[in-house]
Amino acid sequence: METITIFTAGGSRGNPGPAGIGVYVADAADQVVLKHSTTIGNATDNFAAYQAVVEALEVVQKHYGTATKDMSFELKLDNEVVKKQLNSEDMITDTRSVSHFIHIHNLRVEHYPNLSVSYVKREHNTEAVRLVDAALDGR
Predict the structure, then answer these.
(1) What CATH number has the domain bearing residue 128?
(2) DSSP state, 138?
(3) If you write DSSP's letter for every residue of 37-93 in order, what string do you get?
(4) Residue 126 needs a FRET pair 20 to 30 A away by CA distance; which of 12, 23, 33, 86 works?
């Protein structure tokens, strides 16, 4: 089964402050499948990281449709707190993240039975981070 890799990043300038997200998706041959970035208003880094995951799963599901149920995905994000929470390795302490967590859980159950979530250092997430910066800079 081919594995699609989804890189996500969320960040804010000020924490909280103006925030944006970046999503970079590559196929098994490391070819770009899609890119997505946008601003999300004022938010914390963790909130932006959660929003990046939500939007990533939504745009990927829209791109592949019902085929996501039979595909393998690796979600890589550079926010270790969010990664641990999504993998039930840590508790959610910020109540604002609960709705994102539930939404992501529901997307996983309905569309992504073969999804793994892992942490990647920021320097190995350069394209998603670049997309965040581009969104925040209005590019």
Answers:
(1) 3.30.420.10
(2) T
(3) EEEEEEE-HHHHHHHHHHHHHHHHHHHHGGGGGGSEEEEEES-HHHHHHHTTSS---
(4) 86
Range of the domain at 35: 3-137
What is the residue-averaged pLDDT of the chain?
97
Please state, in angstroms and rounded to a whole number, the distance separating the CA atoms of residues 133 and 39.
10
Give the number of domains in the chain: 1
3-class DSSP assignment, residue 27? coil
The answer on pLDDT for 57 being more than 90 is yes
For residue 13, what pLDDT is reported? Answer: 97
CB 85 within 8 A of CB 45: no
If DSSP codes are grouped into helix, strand and coil, which group holds residue 119? Answer: strand
In 50-65, which positions are buried (b, 16+ CB within 10 angstroms) versus exposed (e)?
Answer: bbbbbbbbebbbeebe
Q: What percent of the chain has pLDDT over 90?
A: 96
Q: Read off the tokens for 13.
A: 């300038």
